[in-house]
Amino acid sequence: MTRGRFIALEGGEGTGKSTQAQLLAEALERRGLTVEVTREPGGTPGAEAIRSLLLHPPGEGWGAEAEALLFAAARADHVARRIRPALKAGRWIVCDRFVDSSRAYQGKAGGLGEQAIVALHQIGSHGLRPDLTLLIEVDEQTALHRIAARDGGGADAIGGRDPAYHRKVAQAFRSFAEADPAGFALIDGSGDPAQVHQRILRAIERLIS
Question: Which residues, in sequence order, are CB contacts of 176 under 8 Å at separation 6+?
Fold first, then answer.
């Protein structure tokens, strides 16, 4: 059986990843592919439980090290119980965030360093990488407008961090894409969802043809 393909969508807050993940899955299914849409943190019962702890932490919240370990634990369960079995069975995975989010948020913006995140990923998920990572980018004002419309002032523990933190996240994502042009496709996230979707379809054509 042919192995499935693994596509991750990355980007900062308000870039439209969740919307585009669903649109992409529907487009792939119309081509006769079997597709699973999932997300990080989450995607399995155990990882979803960790998601709740991360986004709505108890007490004073998590320190940087504990946060990174929780993300790595959620990802390890997700990879072992859902992603690898689906790929082995020939299904395609479309994932809203993967390890590059940890590299950007906890590694770069959070100050832990990329090496620590990569080491945790190697231990927990044996270094699994997507076949292609779609990095959706929008300007800062567009992102802030979308976040306000989405959250209505009720942002989670990570999304609600200050603009300087999210600026570092965006810069980190761009640096990853520039360092690995074969593994990343930069997607202009401006305009309406249909326009962005068409850009994504052009970017993934190499995986399908």
Answer: 100, 103, 104, 135, 184
CA-based nearest residue to 18, from 37, 34, 33, 35? 37
State the DSSP code for 110.
T
pTM of the model: 0.93
* β-pairing verdict for 35-39 and 6-10: unpaired
Model confidence over 151-196: pLDDT tens digits? Answer: 666 667 787 788 898 999 999 999 999 999 999 999 999 999 999 9
Q: Which two tokens mark 28?
A: 């792939």
CA 146 from centre of chain:
17
N residues, the chain: 209
Task: Give the integer Cα–Cα distance in Å for 11 and 207.
Answer: 21
For residue 192, count other CB atoms closer than 10 A to its CB. 8
Cα 88–chain centre separation: 21
Whole-number Å distance between alpha carbons of 195 and 114:
33
Give me the phi and psi of 7, to 5 degrees please.
-115, 125
